[in-house]
Design brief:
176 residues, six-stranded mixed beta sheet, two-stranded antiparallel sheet
Amino acid sequence: MKILVERLTDTPTLFELEADTSWWRAFMPAHRDLPGKLEEPLRFRLHAHCMGEDLYLEGSVEGGLELECGRCLARYRQALREPFRLVLEPAGARQPADPEGAEALARDSVCLGEEIDAGWYRGSEIDLGAILFEVVALALPVKPLCREGCEGLCSRCGADRNLGPCDCSEIKTESP
């Protein structure tokens, strides 16, 4: 998933990419609580063009991931449809202050700023893999829920309250 900078003009060029499980595993940190494989490929549509020396990338990701509900632990499919926009300016002789940014600039020829909508690039070829992974990661919910009104599990017996009430009595705490 690389873009050759010298081939870009001021007219947007369309790139359509599909990311499969091997791409997903290459970028997903091992400690993350995300699925280890993709049930279907993620599809990226990306328009890229130059604005002076800056690069302008605009696109979207579509697909779905199987996640675990944060309340009832059921597996469910989380649909993804997320737009993104990014402006990259030439890094020149500048070096990112943080070690991770410097490593990303050396490895991928691109480094994102604190916000995902801006960053730096260096060289004639940029690897978009890390950027596209960030887009997917930021599109996922912080607390995945299988549905809005999920009742979750009973804290006493562990029964799934979505299937019906359990026989446990409600514990009423005394409020001071």
